[in-house]
C-alpha cells in the first residue's frame, strides 16, 4: 500500500515538474524558432523578394525572447543578414519596438556593407600573401596565419604591416579605419590554423569567419596580437606584438613572474605584496622568447594583507615561462589617486 502511494506521488511530481519545465522553456523561447523563422521569411519575401534565403535561426536567450534569423544574400556569397524577431511582439508590425520592414532593410544594408568591407580587407591581405582565416565577432580584427620565431618575427610583422597599409588605403581617407589610431591583426600558427573549425563552405563567408566555434578553436591556443599605429592614414608598418595565452597558461605565467618579482623586491621591501593584476606583455623587438610588461606591487600590505590601488610598478623582461631575465626597473607614482593607471610606455 505504501509502495503504491509512493508511486502515485512520484507520478504526480513528475507531471508537475514536466509541466513547470514546459512553461519555463516556453516563456524563455527555448521550445522552438519555427514561428519566428516563418514570420521572418514572409517579411523577407514581401519586402526583398528573391534576395534573401533563411539559413538558420537561434533562440535569443535569456530575457529578450524571440529569435535571431540568419539569411544568406542570393547575389552576394560573402554577405549575411541577421534579423531579431519575436512573433509574440510582431503582430503590430514591430521588431524590437521598430517597424519590421525598416529593421530588415537596415539589416540588409548593413550586411551588404559589411561584405564589401570584408572584400576590401581580404583583397589587401591576399595581395601581400596572407589569407584571412577568421574575423572577430564585429568583423575585426582579422586572423592570419604565420609561424613567428626569433628569425621571422620582424619580417612577418613588417609584411603584415604593409597589408594593413593597403587595407587602410583601399578603405579610403574618410573610413573609420583610416581615421583610427591603430589597427590590430591576430596571428595564429599554421598548426593551429590547420585544425580550426572551418564550418560549411555553403555558408556565407562572413557567417563562417565570425563564428564563435571557429574563434574558440583558434584562441584556445596561444597566439599573437600585432598592433600598428595609424596617424593621418599612414601606418607604422614595423608594428609590435603581444602574446595572448589561454586562461590557465596566462595564470601560470602570471604566478611565475609575480613570485619572482616579489622575491627580488623583498631585499629592500621585506613586507612587499605583489598584485595579481596582469598587464600587457609585449614582445621585445625581433624576439618571441622575450617579453616585457609591468608587475604592480605595494611596499606594504593594507590592513587586510592585500595590494590594492598600487602606486608602484616593476618593469620586467621575462622568458616565455615568465622567469625574469636582466634587471627589473622600478617605476613610482603610476596611479592618479585611486583611479586610472598611468604607466609609462615601453
Short description:
The protein is an alpha+beta fold.
Which SSEs are present, and which pair or pack?
Layout: H1 2-28, H2 34-47, E1 52-59, E2 67-73, E3 76-85, E4 94-95, E5 98-99, H3 100-126, E6 134-135, E7 142-145, H4 153-171, H5 176-179, E8 182-188, H6 190-194, H7 205-209, H8 212-219, E9 223-231, E10 234-235, E11 240-244, H9 247-265, E12 273-274, E13 282-283, E14 291-298, E15 312-318, E16 329-332
Parallel strand pairs: 7-8
Antiparallel strand pairs: 1-2, 2-3, 4-5, 6-7, 8-9, 9-10, 9-11, 12-14, 13-14, 14-15, 15-16
Helix pairs in contact: 3-4
Rounded to the nearest angstrom, the distance between the terminal CA atoms is 80 Å
SS strand fraction: 15-25%
Biggest sheet details: 6 strands, mixed
The whole-angstrom Rg is 27 Å
Number of strands: 16
Mean pLDDT metric: 90
The SS-based structural class is alpha+beta
Report the order of strands and helices: HHEEEEEHEEHHEHHHEEEHEEEEE
**Given the structure, what is the number of helices?**
9
Query: Low-confidence parts, pLDDT < 50 over ≥5 residues?
Result: 5-31
Protein name: Lipoprotein
Structural commentary:
The protein has 346 residues and is an alpha+beta fold. It folds into three domains: 34-114, no CATH class; 127-244, no CATH class; 247-332, no CATH class. It has nine helices and 16 strands. The strands form four sheets. Strands 6, 7, 8, 9, 10 and 11 form a six-stranded mixed sheet that branches. Strands 12, 13, 14, 15 and 16 form a five-stranded antiparallel sheet that branches. Strands 1-2-3 form a three-stranded antiparallel sheet. It starts with a helix and ends in a 14-residue tail after the last strand. Residues 5-31 have low confidence and may be disordered.
Amino acid at each position: 500500500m505504501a509502495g503504491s502511494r509512493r508511486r502515485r506521488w512520484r507520478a504526480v511530481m513528475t507531471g508537475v515538474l514536466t509541466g513547470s519545465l514546459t512553461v519555463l522553456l516556453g516563456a524563455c523561447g527555448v521550445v522552438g524558432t519555427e514561428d519566428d523563422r516563418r514570420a521572418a521569411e514572409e517579411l523577407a519575401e514581401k519586402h526583398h523578394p528573391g534576395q534573401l534565403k533563411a539559413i538558420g535561426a537561434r533562440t535569443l536567450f535569456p530575457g529578450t525572447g524571440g529569435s535571431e534569423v540568419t539569411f544568406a544574400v542570393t547575389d552576394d556569397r560573402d554577405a549575411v543578414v541577421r534579423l531579431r524577431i519575436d512573433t509574440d511582439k510582431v503582430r503590430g508590425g514591430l521588431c524590437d519596438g521598430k517597424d519590421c520592414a525598416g529593421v530588415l532593410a537596415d539589416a540588409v544594408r548593413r550586411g551588404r556593407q559589411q561584405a564589401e568591407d570584408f572584400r576590401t580587407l581580404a583583397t589587401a591581405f591576399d595581395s601581400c600573401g596572407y589569407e584571412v582565416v577568421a574575423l572577430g565577432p564585429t568583423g575585426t580584427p582579422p586572423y592570419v596565419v604565420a609561424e613567428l620565431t626569433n628569425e621571422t618575427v620582424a619580417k612577418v610583422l613588417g609584411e603584415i604591416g604593409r597589408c594593413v597599409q593597403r587595407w587602410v588605403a583601399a578603405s579610403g581617407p574618410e573610413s573609420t579605419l583610416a581615421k583610427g589610431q591603430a589597427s590590430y591583426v591576430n596571428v595564429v600558427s599554421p598548426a593551429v590554423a590547420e585544425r580550426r573549425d572551418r564550418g560549411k563552405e555553403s555558408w556565407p563567408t562572413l557567417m563562417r569567419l565570425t563564428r564563435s566555434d571557429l574563434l574558440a578553436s583558434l584562441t584556445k591556443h596561444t597566439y599573437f596580437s600585432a598592433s600598428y599605429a595609424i596617424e593621418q592614414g599612414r601606418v607604422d608598418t614595423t608594428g609590435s606584438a603581444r602574446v595572448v595565452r589561454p586562461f590557465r597558461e596566462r595564470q601560470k605565467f602570471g604566478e611565475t613572474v609575480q613570485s619572482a618579482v616579489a622575491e627580488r623586491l623583498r631585499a629592500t621591501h621585506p613586507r612587499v605584496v605583489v598584485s595579481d593584476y596582469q598587464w600587457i606583455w609585449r614582445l621585445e623587438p625581433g624576439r618571441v622568447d622575450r617579453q616585457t610588461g609591468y608587475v604592480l606591487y605595494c611596499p606594504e600590505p593594507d590592513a587586510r594583507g592585500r595590494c590594492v590601488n598600487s602606486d608602484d610598478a616593476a618593469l620586467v623582461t621575462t622568458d616565455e615561462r615568465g622567469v625574469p631575465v636582466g634587471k627589473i626597473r622600478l617605476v613610482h607614482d603610476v596611479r592618479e589617486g585611486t583611479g586610472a593607471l598611468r604607466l609609462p610606455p615601453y
